[in-house]
Request: fold
Amino acid sequence: MTFRDNVFPARRNGHSSGGDALPFGVNGPHVGTNGRERSEQQTILEHAVHSSVGAFVLTDLSGVIEYANDAFSRLTGYSSEEVLGKHTRMFSSGMQDREFYTELWCTILSGATWSGELRNRKKDGTLYWEAMTVSPVVIEGRVVKFIATKMDITKQKTIQQELLEARENANRASALKDAFLGTISHEIRTPMNVILGFADLLEQQYSAVIDPHDKFYFSSIREASQRLLRTLDLMVNVSSAVSGNYQCVFEEHDITEVVERMVHQFTPAAHDKRLFLEFRPTENIVLARIDRYAFEQSLQNLLDNAIRFTHDGGVFVTVQRREHSLCIEIFDTGEGMSQEFLSRVFEPFNQEDIGLSRRYEGVGLGLSLTKRYIELCHGSITVQSEKGKGTRFTVHLPLAA
Reply:
């Protein structure tokens, strides 16, 4: 039994027994009433289906296979002769339940098209995923056959599963990391506060008998403890910002006032190094909607870096309104950075000086966290620098509506 015998009704006197309608639910193009012309049309359609790269199978109303093209054989491993007269259940993998097939059959018997994904079994027993569309063949308002087109999507499903597993593994790793950081934060912060507290108490209680030259022991304890706490805070904050666990609270603030207050906090540190710290606002009041904690942490990191890496001159801070944004600039006359390092300055755990011989403390998280916080405030940050000529950080924030 051939494809032509099943798909195209028997012809009598140059006309098909089913009238002019092709059994695909649509009327085929008519080039005339000449029987030879219509036969050529059907032959073309037959060859098109037979040579299609998509698997194609025709069944009767009960699901018995009456035709399968070469692509179907390549998909399942069965030849056309092996499947003709067999029910489509021969490919069942048992992975779909009764409700799945009930919904499929109810859909196509009603005259509607069904589309979906299912897992079937090849001749050699291999399981594979296929995307299938089953359409009823309707002649004169009556469903007479079913046409199914199939496509092997095993690779796509495998990739999807691998991506899903990778996401789940990443989520588990992230949760484990957060739990680890939370535990470390508690286990380090608690004894460190005890160390700081008792160091201050000992210094006060025995100040009268301590040699003045030995008092630096206590200042060293404080500095080392505070350094460790700063590193811990940076690690926890970076983890929170990057993982998306940080919850922003947006409020309208006068940026001029916020920046000025922060500059005043760093004035003593600048004076200790005999540097100037100059604030130059061009606007009295400039409003922006920000998360205040995120913005202040960013500004604190930028000012701290500017003073730390400047040994002569000082730091200028400006606030000005642009056409569509607010611009904050922190410019220092310090060491500057190489062009090679500028390309990765906002990457975490990055420092220009590396190794045990580096001149400055820290773990290279400050600027990475700064960039993330600025982005959480819907802003952006850029940097310009040159070795020996200082550094300029520019922060852009959207103006309040």
Summary: Confidence is low (pLDDT under 50) at residues 1-32. The CA atoms of residues 88 and 150 lie 13 Å apart. The chain has eleven helices and 14 strands. The longest helix spans residues 154-205.
